[in-house]
């Protein structure tokens, strides 16, 4: 269930009457509408009273979240936790980054099993653990979970890695918030290849905190040794300012996609690795589509 204001999850839960509810993360998405992480937490917690109507229902919580103890204390139904850290009901041990895949041992009350997750990023290990927690509730065997995760593919524009001509691209263009942006940047850092180049659209719905978070993301790029930054949008100058302060000299902002693409095409070198990401309204996939036309004209 999605939401960007209070009352939406409550109404959706009243319609669906779920037996299992998952609160995956509490991040800064929609903070511009809701005002604070506390309010975002409360909006997502609207699910809990609906689950509490039946003590045999299940609430699934992310044990890596600081909000989980409070949310769990509100539950009168059953609770199961997942997480990468210690103490989760469903956890991961021995996580190994295989560039475009992740490997780990799934640990649960039903036992352990090696997992090959054919998608990149440690954050996707957390997502896989959430799915496994639900599967455990439903009585799915561990072997079936392992097979399903080994063949799972992400939908388009979600952390997909592919080649455009002589360049490697991480297409994460579907949406963005400060936390997902940080994870995507860390994924880019881990990818083997040449220079690491980031193409970012604005992160929207951040309200009065927008300039702060865009500057912060720019600063983070310096810590991650990103070589170049191309930005688009109202707040992109703040991202560039943060990046330049962090020591990234090749940082540019643009008012339109055409200008950005023209500059990027003259900047690229063989084996460069690009991350393309931004909020949904920025339509950053259009940049990838235009790059594909220029770099792979026969496809």
TrEMBL record:
Keywords: ATP-binding, Ligase, Nucleotide-binding. It holds the Pfam family Mur_ligase_M. Residues 167-280 form the Mur ligase C-terminal domain. GO terms for molecular function: acid-amino acid ligase activity; ATP binding. Gene3D superfamilies: Mur ligase, C-terminal domain, Mur-like, catalytic domain. Residues 1-135 form the Mur ligase central domain. InterPro entries: Mur-like_cat_sf (IPR036565), Mur_ligase_C (IPR004101), Mur_ligase_C_dom_sf (IPR036615), Mur_ligase_cen (IPR013221), MurCDEF_CellWall_CoF430Synth (IPR051046). SUPFAM superfamilies: MurD-like peptide ligases, catalytic domain, MurD-like peptide ligases, peptide-binding domain. This is UDP-N-acetylmuramoyl-tripeptide--D-alanyl-D-alanine ligase.
């Amino acid at each position: 269930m999605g939401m960007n204001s209070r009352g939406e999850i409550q109404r959706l839960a009243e319609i669906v009457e779920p037996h299992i509810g998952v609160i995956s993360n509490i991040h800064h998405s929609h903070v511009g509408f809701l005002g604070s992480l506390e309010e975002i937490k409360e909006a997502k917690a609207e699910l809990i009273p609906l689950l509490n109507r039946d003590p045999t229902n299940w609430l699934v919580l992310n044990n890596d979240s600081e909000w989980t103890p409070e949310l769990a204390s509100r539950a009168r139904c059953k609770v199961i936790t997942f997480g990468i850290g210690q103490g989760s009901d469903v956890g991961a041990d021995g996580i190994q980054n295989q560039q475009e895949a992740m490997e780990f041992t799934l640990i649960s009350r039903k036992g352990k099993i090696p997992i090959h997750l054919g998608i990149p990023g440690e954050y996707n290990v957390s997502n896989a653990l959430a799915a496994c927690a639900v599967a455990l509730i439903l009585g799915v065997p561990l072997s079936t979970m392992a097979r399903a995760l080994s063949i799972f593919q992400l939908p388009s524009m979600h952390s997909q890695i592919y080649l455009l001509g002589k360049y490697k691209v991480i297409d994460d263009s579907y949406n963005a918030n400060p936390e997902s942006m940080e994870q995507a940047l860390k994924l880019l850092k881990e990818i083997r290849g040449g220079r690491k180049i980031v193409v970012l659209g604005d992160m929207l719905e951040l309200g009065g905190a927008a300039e702060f978070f865009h500057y912060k993301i720019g600063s983070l790029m310096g810590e991650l040794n990103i070589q170049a930054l191309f930005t688009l949008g109202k707040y992109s100058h703040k991202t560039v300012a943060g990046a330049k302060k962090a020591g990234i000299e090749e940082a540019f902002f643009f008012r339109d996609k055409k200008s950005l693409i023209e500059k990027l095409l003259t900047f690229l070198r063989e084996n460069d690795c690009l991350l393309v990401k931004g909020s949904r309204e920025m339509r950053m996939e259009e940049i990838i589509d235009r790059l594909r036309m220029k770099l792979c004209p026969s496809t």
